[in-house]
Each structure stands twice: as structure tokens, then as C-alpha cells.
Amino acid sequence: MWKAKFSNGDVLNGIDENNKEVLFRKVLDRLDELENLSIVLENKIFTVRMADGRFSTMIDDKENHFFALDAAAMDLKCIRPIYFVNETADFTTTGQSLTALGPPRVNFTALGFQTNLNGRNVKRYLTIFPDGTFVIKDK
Question: Any residues with CB less than 8 A from the CB of 81 and at least 6 apart, and which?
Fold first, then answer.
């Protein structure tokens, strides 16, 4: 589940109090106010700060901070969040009918940022696997 924190103190969760999915569009509509975006998995929290592209992890109550980009925060222009979920679904066909065989499986969740750096479009994100392990991607 994602969790967005805004400069005025508002917090928006990917699932509301009625257990309904909240569209990520609500975060995108408030990009100018977005302070950080987190992915919450049981006892693990992964966060990216929009001010400077700093990542943090909270795993088993141990917090770590790191930058995935060797650049000064003031050099980063137009920082935007990256968030998506990569899933796989199995299907069967019967005649001309296509039927899903159960719900989709999450392969990974991506959390990071995209920015302009020295005229280049740069993307850095964590590929977070369902077990909480992660790798840093550079695109």
C-alpha cells in the first residue's frame, strides 16, 4: 500500500477507511505539495523524499537513509514520483473466451523519482519485491 505525505500535514493512504482503493491520481493532482511517498509492507516501510530524492527504509524498526543519485539536491529539477506495481496473471482459453485463473500476483512494486539533471531525464527507483527485499534501478 502507498502512503503520501503533503507539506500541509495531510496524509493520503492508498486504501481509505472503508477499505476502498484510492486512486493515485489524487497524489498526482497535488505534486507541488508532495513531501514524500512511501510503500508499506507489513513491518517494512520504503520512502522517497521529493525535495532531494533521498530514500529511506524502515525494516524491523531499523531506519536507513541513502541517496541513489550522486548529485546536489539543488541540481535536481522537477522531481516527480515513480510508483507502479508489476503483476502477472494466468489465463485459460475456452473457445474464444479468455478467463483469469485466480487473482494477479505481484512481482514487484516500484517506488522512486524522475528528475531533470543537467538536461538529462534521470529515473531512480527501488524495485521492492513481495518479501521486502529490494534493488535500486537506474534508468
Answer: 27, 31, 34, 37, 48, 50, 111, 112, 113, 114
pLDDT tens digit sequence for 14-62: 999 999 999 999 999 999 999 999 999 888 999 999 988 889 999 888 9
Nearest to 109 by CA among 88, 84, 133, 134: 84
| Cβ atoms 122, 114 nearer than 8 A | yes
**Residue 116, helix vs strand vs coil:** strand
CA distance 128 to 107: 9
Q: What residues does each domain of the chain span? A: 2-138
CB neighbour list of residue 76: distance below 8 Å, 6 or more residues apart: 52, 53, 69, 115, 116, 117
pTM comes to 0.85
Beta strands, E only, the chain: 2-6, 11-13, 34-41, 44-49, 54-59, 62-67, 77-88, 91-94, 97-100, 105-117, 120-128, 134-138
**55: alpha, beta or left? (left if phi > 0; alpha if psi -120 to 50):** beta
